[in-house]
Design brief:
about 280 residues, alpha+beta, Aminopeptidase, 2 domains, 12 strands, disordered N terminus, GNAT family N-acetyltransferase, acyltransferase activity, UCP21603_acetyltransf, EC 2.3.1.-
Length: about 280
């Protein structure tokens, strides 16, 4: 009998419910980078629910872990694990709109997926992941506050403008904006949308997009074009970061390396780089 040339690689599998303890330990070992996924797992556990996605591992979650949902997020794993994650992701029609996470995991995973999924709409290969665990260095803006539910329409206009500017597509495409409006309404109702209003219009906005037990990830930072360069963004982000830190959490965000203006503003707030993310926008 001829020897087998290559043994079959261990495939990736959905993480079992009884693996919850190990998964939480993995997420807790990298609390800033894993904030998006930790927030989901801490709230919903590992039980599969429509629209929430699922976690995969290859072997043991302590060795390899990847989230699959609206985003594909590699959290831990060697080259073999990334290959297994790519194989599983390509087994069914693609559901994620982006691949995002630590640069050293995301870019190799995308290399494995690109041949099947086609060229990326945008590849952001260098995104400093920033963190702040103490009160901001910059003076906060007392006019930046939580958005009230009755202010959703005015806030939504700014959120749409930010999304188009940052992502390059209109979040209202496809369903007329109903899904995006639900997302924004949820952030407002949970007290995680912040803004400064002038004459009824939003001139600064940001959200705490993910909130785990240890980290609050700030996203959607936007300044009205007429107020850029005036310090509104720095002071507003200091306010939101302080709100996160006041809860005993670390404030975090990630930013495109080429956005020098934003990077300088975040540095003035007190954020420091702790890792590097990468994002592949597929849709």
């Amino acid at each position: 009998m001829e020897p087998t040339r290559r043994s079959k690689a261990t495939p990736a599998r959905p993480v079992a419910v009884h693996d919850l303890g190990e998964v939480l330990r993995v997420l807790d070992s990298d609390p800033v980078a894993s904030c998006m996924i930790a927030a989901r797992v801490q709230e919903f556990g590992l039980t599969a629910r429509a629209g929430l996605g699922e976690l995969w591992c290859r072997g043991n979650p302590t060795d390899s872990l990847c989230f699959s949902g609206a985003n594909l997020v590699p959290l831990r794993g060697d080259a073999g694990a990334l290959r297994a994650f790519a194989d599983r992701a390509m087994r069914w029609p693609r559901v994620c709109s982006s691949v995002v996470g630590r640069q050293e995991l995301t870019l190799p995973l995308w290399d494995l997926l690109a041949s099947r999924w086609g060229p990326a709409r945008d590849l952001r290969a260098d995104q400093p992941l920033l963190a702040l665990g103490e009160p901001a260095l910059a003076r906060p803006d007392a006019a930046v506050r939580r958005v009230r539910p009755d202010e959703i329409d005015r806030y939504l206009n700014a959120a749409i403008a930010m999304f188009i500017e940052e992502v390059g597509i209109d979040p209202r495409a496809g369903d007329g904006g109903r899904g995006y409006r639900r997302r924004i309404r949820g952030l407002i109702e949970s007290g995680r949308a912040w803004a400064r209003f002038e004459d009824g219009a939003v001139i600064y906005k940001a959200e705490i997009g993910s909130l785990s037990r240890r980290t609050g990830q700030i996203q959607g930072v936007w300044v009205h074009p007429d107020f850029r360069g005036t310090g509104v963004g720095t002071a507003g982000t200091a306010t939101v970061a302080n709100a996160v830190v006041a809860t005993g959490r670390t404030a975090s965000l990630y930013v495109n390396d080429y956005n020098r203006i934003a990077r300088r503003a975040y540095s003035r707030v007190g954020f420091r780089q702790i890792a590097t993310f990468a994002t592949v926008l597929v849709d």
